[in-house]
Amino acid sequence: MQSAGPSSGDGISGATALGSADLVSQIGVGWQILLHLAPGALATLAYVVVGRLFYVNGLPSILGFYLASVLILFPIEIGLPIVLERRRSDRSRLSRSTGFRYCPRRVGVP
Q1: Phi, then psi, of 9 in degrees rounded to 5
Q2: Interatomic CA distance for residues 17 and 99, integer angstroms
Q3: pLDDT tens digit sequence for 34-73
Q4: Is the pTM of this model over 0.70?
Q5: How many whole angstroms separate alpha carbon 88 and alpha carbon 53?
Q6: Do residues 20 and 58 make contact, with C-beta atoms less than 8 angstroms apart?
Q7: Cβ neighbours of residue 54 under 8 Å, at least 6 residues apart?
Q8: Could you read off the pLDDT of 7-29 as tens digits, one per residue?
Q9: Contact at 8 Å (CB) between 72 and 39?
């Protein structure tokens, strides 16, 4: 019986599909949880503060969410992977930090 894992002959190795195996082993579960939840928590905190200020001054509070997203959430979500990639290697590229790999479509496979 053939396994359905990455080594089953589909042409994609586990390290290519999931990124570098040594980088995955360097990041612990605690750091993964922190990196996943911290940007949202910071953006929520900023929205609570700024949204209240906007509401008191007669502006729609949703503008506070937009401001928190632009000033806090997007720079963290986009900048942090770039900074971590630059620390890891001399030549940093956004494509390396996002883990996107081009996989051409096989003929006859939907």
Answers
A1: 95, 15
A2: 8
A3: 888 999 999 999 999 998 999 999 999 899 999 999 999 9
A4: no
A5: 40
A6: no
A7: 60, 61, 63, 64
A8: 444 444 444 444 454 554 577 88
A9: yes
